[in-house]
Amino acid sequence: MYVGIDVGTSIVKAAAFDGTGRELAVEARPVRLDLHGGRVEQDMEEVYGAVVSVLDELTARVAEPVELAGLTGQGDGVWLVDADGRPVRAAASWMDGRAHELLDRWLADGTFEAVFRRTGSAMFPGCPGPLLAWLDRHEPKSLDAAAAAVYCKDMVFQRLTGAARVTTDVSDASMPFLDPRTRTYDEGVLELLGLAHRRDLLAPVADPIAVGRTRGEGLPPGVPVTNGPYDLPASALGAGVTSPGDGLLIVGTCLAALVATTDLDLSGEPAGLYISTDRPGHRLRALPAMVGTAALDWVLSTTGVRHEEVDGLLAETPPGAHGVRVLPYFAPSGERAPFVDPHLRAELTGVCLESTRADLVRAVCEGIGYAARHCLEAAGLTGSLAVCGGGTRSPAWMRLLADVLGRPLRVVEGEVGARGAVLAAAERHGVPLDAPAWTRPTTIVEPDARRAAYYAEGYAEHLDRLTQARGRGGRERAAGSRTAGPFG
């Protein structure tokens, strides 16, 4: 039995697989996000406790001995730990928006672009650069008390294995401090962000990924376990996206577009990032938009619709949702892909007294599809496209998405991130697994030519509305800057 552990933003999962890649069992437990005033934090002890619980439940259900385990999890954010991997304060999530004013300053003075030109990382408020700089200014004692500023899976790995020293991997380190050419930290970026004096907080990069053995919490003592890659590149592995030009769309809480590449193009509009992988010279061009299924969840909760009603509602209203349109930029920290705009917000237009819940649901699903197309085009998709994530549970949404994207979808269901974590662990330990069998798609969804042509026009309109929205936001910020007092 092989076990993949995926420490997600809102759900922690553990999945068991047999040697052929068949999913034997999955255990999951939700974890809380604490939202207050633009800040989004998580209790590290709750997160680690959820990992141990799902592993206990999984191994109780499936009696086979565990041969190997792989760990993945959410990226970005700041997880401050002491030398034993214990929390110094609550973790600041990748969804956190407190550093947006600092990012505004870096966007204006050229720091943001300078970092992108060095590392291929377009910072956003919830990535470690802005968050560490904010903490250094407002909570320096927290940084003083920490042994390391790590990522979610790194904290879990140290606790599971009892490792004497916390490390990270090249994928998590890619945002925003890693030089993708040397695969080491760029000291110049630390200086640009005013963090050179906090250099010791960056965990050493284990290249290839770190290995250890469990100490008996959740899994029996002595099980080999690996740390990484984080959830985006792990999902690419789990979906079989390894050939240059092939892509993956993760329709989850975050809407992430990934394209495999051997190129490194640091020109153009700074956005997204290049994620280094365990294979030197092989990268993922990643454009992870802030909000995916979370936008649909908001509409469902606001209108009182249950998830199981979505497919039926999508059938009730035609493409175009009777004129209702949604720009799906719902994150409190704005958008980060395929552009960076910390102040962009969602827009709902075309609503009248005749609009229905079905119109709203279809409009947000179409809007998410347009945002996905924007990201995939910017990422350089030229090959096949795999799709995974919670959104794949809706067949009607997948058909709509194929039409909006105008291309076939290789739908890969199940715990794709956990599957990728196992494949990474197997490669690291030299365990021969049949990767094509492990990553075979569940189904292939073909687009309808007539609807695809309709949505091609809708996509052009979406881009026009987005340009107008960003222009309005810029004018409003400029007007505000002229009239604001000393405290904003």
Automatic annotation (TrEMBL):
<dbReference type="InterPro" id="IPR043129">
    <property type="entry name" value="ATPase_NBD"/>
</dbReference>
<keyword id="KW-0808">Transferase</keyword>
<dbReference type="GO" id="GO:0016301">
    <property type="term" value="F:kinase activity"/>
</dbReference>
<feature type="domain" description="Carbohydrate kinase FGGY N-terminal">
    <location>
        <begin position="1"/>
        <end position="238"/>
    </location>
</feature>
<feature type="compositionally biased region" description="Basic and acidic residues">
    <location>
        <begin position="469"/>
        <end position="479"/>
    </location>
</feature>
<protein>
    <submittedName>
        <fullName>FGGY family carbohydrate kinase</fullName>
    </submittedName>
</protein>
<comment type="similarity">
    <text>Belongs to the FGGY kinase family.</text>
</comment>
<dbReference type="InterPro" id="IPR018484">
    <property type="entry name" value="FGGY_N"/>
</dbReference>
<dbReference type="Pfam" id="PF00370">
    <property type="entry name" value="FGGY_N"/>
</dbReference>
<feature type="domain" description="Carbohydrate kinase FGGY C-terminal">
    <location>
        <begin position="291"/>
        <end position="426"/>
    </location>
</feature>
<dbReference type="InterPro" id="IPR000577">
    <property type="entry name" value="Carb_kinase_FGGY"/>
</dbReference>
<dbReference type="Pfam" id="PF02782">
    <property type="entry name" value="FGGY_C"/>
</dbReference>
<feature type="region of interest" description="Disordered">
    <location>
        <begin position="469"/>
        <end position="488"/>
    </location>
</feature>
<keyword id="KW-0418">Kinase</keyword>
<dbReference type="InterPro" id="IPR018485">
    <property type="entry name" value="FGGY_C"/>
</dbReference>
<dbReference type="InterPro" id="IPR050406">
    <property type="entry name" value="FGGY_Carb_Kinase"/>
</dbReference>
